[in-house]
Write a structure and sequence with these properties.
Layout: H1 13-23, H2 25-51, H3 53-69
Amino acid sequence: MSHRSTPVHLPSPRRMRRLRSRSERGAATAEYATTIVAACGLGGILVALLKSDVMLNALKALINYALKLAGVEGIQL
């Protein structure tokens, strides 16, 4: 009884790159989607914070202080 093995044909490196890039296309899209969702969430938090009176007054004070340091006086926000 002789054992004849059939040769294993591996895909060419070019075909492997093409197959790999095809299977990883969705990964990049998912990463972009996750980043966009995170950025929108952070933006929502910042908007909510800046709408509060405490943060609005702190921001105005900071801007007035910076203008005073720059030598621009007489402007009150």
